[in-house]
Amino acid sequence: MIMVEGEVSGKKYREPFSKGVLARSLTRAEMDPNKAYTFSSQIEAQLKKEGVKLIKLDDLVNVVRQRLKEEDSEIAVQYGLWKRIRKCQDPLVILIGGSSGVGTSSIAFEVANRLGIRNMISTDMIREVMRKIASKDLLPTIYESSYTAYRSLRIPPPPELDEVLIGFRDHVDTVSVGVEAVIERSITEGISIVIEGVHIVPGFIREDLVSRDNVHMFILTLEDEEVHKGRFYSRCRQQWARRPLERYMNYFGAIRRTHKYFESQANKYHVPVIENIDITTTIESIIEDITKTYGSEDYVTESKG
Ligand SMILES: Nc1ncnc2c1ncn2[C@@H]1O[C@H](COP(=O)(O)OP(=O)(O)OP(=O)(O)O)[C@@H](O)[C@H]1O
Ligand SMILES: O=C(O)[C@@H](CO)OP(=O)(O)O
């Protein structure tokens, strides 16, 4: 049996070489799953032929990259990038925001899966917890949806202001406190995470958090209103869907006003905006932007504590 020796927080560990584990990381580098398993078997055979009994993880990565370069240079580059991302001392915190229905949940799930990030939370969940802690009298707008929060404003805004956006801002500003807590905990614990939802709005999360190299924010948009509407139809058709289509259609105008606000905030704070037409393109845009940070061969962050 071939043993692989790795190191976590300065402590060495050993585990048996697993074709399945290696194949999974190759699929993250966009290798076809069947080919990934065959390739992993070839690596195992190569190590056995060389009489390897124990191999350090870094040496195994080099063996894989060397063979990948001979077979598919593009995947070799992707594989190298994932390894650099995962070697970084700081956890990867990915924030995916956008108005209701543009696809933040779906895209977050796919990005987390591609990067092997096991932790994902929606800001709706964070809001749900906050609803249990703060009373409706104290924080009335978080008991609403983001696009109906204006209905619970204690002081109605002056007529010249957009009441939907005033309510949305109040709602998001409150939930952002919970979002910041999750980001801080992820950084403290060294846990990579994807946080998604309508409460990820540029300018509402503390600058000292979003300005970190390992924190990446993206805003998803849909320019075409009919395509946006279609997303609600698509979701509400799914078995597990519990949220009524009618409500989204009744408030679709308000949702689009928040959509426009996301775009203006993203432009103001120079946050990447990705039109979420095609899932694969969206995911690749996000991963490409993240890997730019880790692109150089020698990029390894020192833990910032
Ligand atoms: N790029 C895409 N192409 C086609 N369908 C998509 C795409 N992205 C998401 N969808 C579909 O659109 C619907 C809405 O997606 P999703 O639930 O992720 O939106 P959301 O932004 O999380 O909404 P909410 O914030 O209200 O939960 C789902 O049925 C999803 O499968
Ligand atoms: O508040 C909102 O905009 C949405 C986000 O998912 O939540 P809900 O539709 O469940 O109120």
TrEMBL record:
Segments forming domain ATP-cone: 1-90
Q: Name one GO molecular function term.
A: ATP binding
Which pathway is this protein assigned to? Thermoadapter biosynthesis; cyclic 2,3-diphosphoglycerate biosynthesis; cyclic 2,3-diphosphoglycerate from 2-phospho-D-glycerate: step 1/2
Top EC class for this record: transferase
CC cofactor: a divalent metal cation
Q: What is its EC number?
A: 2.7.2.16
Q: Record's Pfam families? A: ATP-cone
Can you state which reaction this protein catalyses?
(2R)-2-phosphoglycerate + ATP = (2R)-2,3-bisphosphoglycerate + ADP + H(+)
Is this entry keyworded Ribonucleoprotein? no
Keyword line:
ATP-binding, Kinase, Nucleotide-binding, Transferase
- Report the protein's function: Catalyzes the phosphorylation of 2-phosphoglycerate to 2,3-diphosphoglycerate. Involved in the biosynthesis of cyclic 2,3-bisphosphoglycerate, a thermoprotectant.
Q: Which family does it belong to?
A: Belongs to the 2-phosphoglycerate kinase family.
Q: What is this protein called?
A: 2-phosphoglycerate kinase
